[in-house]
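Hi V.,

Quick status before I head out on leave. The structure for the redesign project is tokenized and pasted below; the design run finished overnight.
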């Protein structure tokens, strides 16, 4: 008789929420129901947060399937990671494909990134770039209209 395999479904719940750093009301939030991960990314200031469930590797080996560590009262233990935003960018190729990301904290790395983004603009890419100062003020460095919208 063949062993029946169970299939775990992963469902993601997505929403727009307020960024805790810059108060932008369209930060991207996602929650995964299978592994309890949460992510939040602000496309305005670059704030980034994610939480992951802690895996119990010993029990996982014994049971042969993923098992999350729990508190004594049965709640899954989550590890939280948070990064202050120093800015964000969105870049769109001439055919409309794009990506978003965070600006690095290091000023030298920021200048290198800005130079690369400016070069991309000269080659027909549309680029949006914001920077966050030490007082959490967000400045739009450049904002090109995205053709694919």
């Amino acid at each position: 008789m063949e062993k029946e395999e169970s299939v775990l479904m992963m469902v993601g719940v997505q929403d727009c929420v307020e960024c805790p750093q810059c108060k932008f009301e369209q930060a991207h939030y996602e929650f995964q129901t299978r592994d309890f991960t949460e992510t939040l990314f602000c496309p305005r200031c670059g704030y980034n947060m994610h939480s992951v469930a802690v895996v119990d590797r010993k029990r996982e080996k014994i049971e042969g399937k993923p098992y999350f560590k729990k508190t004594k009262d049965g709640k899954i233990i989550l590890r939280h990671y948070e990064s202050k935003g120093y800015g964000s960018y969105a870049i769109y190729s001439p055919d409309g494909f794009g990506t978003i990301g965070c600006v690095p904290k290091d000023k030298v790395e920021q200048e290198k990134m800005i130079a690369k983004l400016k070069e991309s603009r000269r080659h027909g890419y549309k680029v949006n770039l914001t920077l966050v100062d030490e007082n959490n003020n967000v400045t739009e460095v450049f904002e090109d209209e995205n053709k694919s919208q």
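Above is the designed sequence. The longest strand covers residues 126-132.

G. will cover questions while I'm gone.

Best,
W.
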